[in-house]
């Protein structure tokens, strides 16, 4: 790979532009480290990226046809392999529920779609929604009431019968979506920012927040007895809630207030399920539902102490920016890593997309600094299954707000509880008349229940297009000593919030004495020293010194590390 | 060495704090110079009476950095008023519109600037073609940033008045504000002014005799709406029982009833040449004189007869039952009962909440003061414990209620003996209700004084007030019938004079220790025959 434009000497080489890597890059660059930041992809943010609709389609194609980089590998004194074709994405499925075209406007799309169409039958005929629901019939028993409307709307699209309140909305076709596609920003992972979480604090502390714009999540919803219900979580919500009795209001507020105090849970509940604990608190079933699924975001095996801790975190985040504890970046989550990259670049970091480290020079004499990367495709990875869905105008309770978080409780075995983020066009992630649903969950099951539940959420918004895939989570590289100048970043996890503490730890290992992301100075306070700031002389070969630190973003960048 | 080089290299150089400070200082000095120069120029122009647009420009510069410079706002108004005389309406419209625009920037500097808000009101009122919709939306924006900005509330009220926003719209507005944050006195209070306008109480046959003026100012709300309000406010205090604003609104909802004005008691004594008239609520002096004249005219003949025959006449009604209850309301008992139930429900969940306890006490009194006496006392004890800062207030309030109860009991028993010993009374009130009492027993309480209103007890013959903390006898004036005073174990210092006093027991008071006290008392109270020191 051509490296002639790259600097000859750097302090830190960072491979991958995911969130963790971008934060480390910004932090290092900010304190004067010379950063070379590479990404083999043609876009920023790796698995954290947000795509336009055409961008997403080509991304899908890329995942399905792994590029063969082997021909580009070079020989060196010490041969080092980097896994270029590694993909963190697996089990990718695309479902398209809209017509391919009314008139053939853009010629390439139908081909694209055919290449994805194997998993779903609907794409061939105009729509056979019943076939789809039948295929899942064993899993739909609990939600069959909800699955019907979806069938209906699909049938409608077949017959062109527009009786169901959506007549004002012209039926969208796939070419429509593609033509308007640049106005989509579809996230690969679905996350929100806790308004007092580590990421928001970091954004503020480092002034990186200047580069982005945020929306407050406007509502927290859940599915209660088959209905979409707003979860009263703030004081104002509890006050105006119509479904809670005054006594329930008091009990809920009392419980929440008591959670705010940093009390350890009663010893008898330590290690026991959070649900058991809630059941002991003389709270009604409805309140337990809210507290368990929506506020604590708990699952059946969440222990009490973890449930209480996440409740506390939720509550502490309330009120900082509005009535819910969450923020969402306008234009999608992919903005955040890019903002940090921008900060890195402002302080002299050098960026190069479509580039990756090809080989590393190994210092045989000094064990401490040598590093070497080998191919090893079979790491044991835990799986996530982020799900991206695009839906047509949503039904009643939704639509008005910009961002909602919907928690769908478990519906029995095989239907784990999931959390879905609903994004309206005001977040600049989808076009008018559509709405985006994303969900990232730890997947111990297939992806279909998630989609199925998503449909049940809104009482059947007609799904236009959907995408499912599993994403490899970061995992400890076990049994192998990392060379001390090599650090591993982290891939997106399935938690709702972001954790940037790993980035901070890496930073402290590289430059232990420096402050992590101090506030960026105002532009007028920067002294521009033209004499020493000249460009580096280009070199033909890239020399990386032993003091150089490597940060490898995703496990995808290198599947296995081994000291030689 | 290599390392240190590379670390320095490439680092963005930032000015040191000292450098920054220095620059800021210079900047400040420069600004100050400009500011002072502009101020002097403004003052000079005002002195010379120059009201031109340059002066307008100068004051604008100053005010945009310091919107609380009241003199400059005055100067600006002078100039604008002058311009009004020389410009036509369209030009003035333009000038005033730019003024409003400028004011908006001032409010951004200080959203609670008295001068800016006042000036905005002034300009809005003078604007030839005002745009009230824009003003309302400005208020909404300001209130969404700070929903307790009382300047904005004031200004908004003015805008609403000027533009005639319908009351329903305003009620919806308070709904919205309360919904987003119910800890807001302004919203609740605004609601309390709107509701009687929108949902006035349906005309009550009983109150048809009232003068029309009092109906126009009726603060009552129709029952249907009241029930909705109870529900709303309950949502607030169940959500956060420690928030006062909701409780205060609740008290307003419960306590809208005005007492009916009536005479509760008449006492006429020929020997003492006195007429005493008790009213059910405070009356002003003019009304009082009118009443006395009317009474005297109407009853003159009858009374004269009786007085000649009997020497005195007393007449009292049993209105107290109503008087004491209407502290809260004359609302249907069933409604109050259900309110009491929900408060009790809250109290079970929050046994130590003072607002809840106090409201329960008030509700109990409104319902049946005698039946709930025991509970009321227990709640007062809890209140004093959970809110020690206000324990004296609670004691006074409790005393008041105990006195009311005793008066009720006395009236039911139709006696003229008022006995309220050992009830921890800290204050005396409702003495106007005791005009006809001949024997009062206040012993073993916590009273510090006998108030001046004690002179109301025109028929009083025996006063028992042993074992209190009474310090002086200032209330014991003009009691023509007083014959016996028992003040053992008090804190008495000086003495008062009562001409008919025969029996005086002052044992255990500091005053007994002074020399020649007996002679002094004899001089002061010549008719005392039995003096115990």
From TrEMBL, chain A:
Residues 401-494 form the RAE1/2 domain. The keyword Cytoplasm applies. Keywords: Cytoplasm, GTPase activation. Its main location: cytoplasm. The keyword Translocase does not apply. Transmembrane segments: none annotated. One of its GO terms (cellular component) is Rab-protein geranylgeranyltransferase complex. Gene3D superfamilies: FAD/NAD(P)-binding domain (3.50.50.60), Guanine Nucleotide Dissociation Inhibitor, domain 2 (3.30.519.10). GO terms for biological process: intracellular protein transport; small GTPase-mediated signal transduction; vesicle-mediated transport. Residues 107-173 are annotated as: Disordered. It is found in: Cytoplasm, Cytosol. InterPro entries: FAD/NAD-bd_sf, GDP_dissociation_inhibitor, Rab_escort, RAE1_2_domI_C. It holds the Pfam family GDI. It comes from the Eukaryota. Residues 107-126, 134-166 have a biased composition (Polar residues). GO terms for molecular function: GDP-dissociation inhibitor activity; GTPase activator activity. Substrate-binding subunit (component A) of the Rab geranylgeranyltransferase (GGTase) complex. Binds unprenylated Rab proteins and presents the substrate peptide to the catalytic component B. The component A is thought to be regenerated by transferring its prenylated Rab back to the donor membrane. Belongs to the Rab GDI family. This is Rab proteins geranylgeranyltransferase component A. It comes from Periophthalmus magnuspinnatus.
TrEMBL record, chain B:
It holds the Pfam family PPTA. It is an enzyme of class 2 (transferase). Keywords: Leucine-rich repeat, Phosphoprotein, Prenyltransferase, Repeat, Transferase. It catalyses: geranylgeranyl diphosphate + L-cysteinyl-[protein] = S-geranylgeranyl-L-cysteinyl-[protein] + diphosphate. Residues 1-25 are annotated as: Disordered. GO terms for cellular component: Rab-protein geranylgeranyltransferase complex. Residues 263-288 form the Rab geranylgeranyltransferase alpha subunit insert-domain domain. One of its GO terms (molecular function) is Rab geranylgeranyltransferase activity. GO terms for biological process: prenylation. Its EC number is 2.5.1.60. Belongs to the protein prenyltransferase subunit alpha family. Catalyzes the transfer of a geranylgeranyl moiety from geranylgeranyl diphosphate to both cysteines of Rab proteins with the C-terminal sequence -XXCC, -XCXC and -CCXX, such as RAB1A, RAB3A, RAB5A and RAB7A. This is Geranylgeranyl transferase type-2 subunit alpha. It comes from Periophthalmus magnuspinnatus. The lineage of its organism: Eukaryota, Metazoa, Chordata, Craniata, Vertebrata.
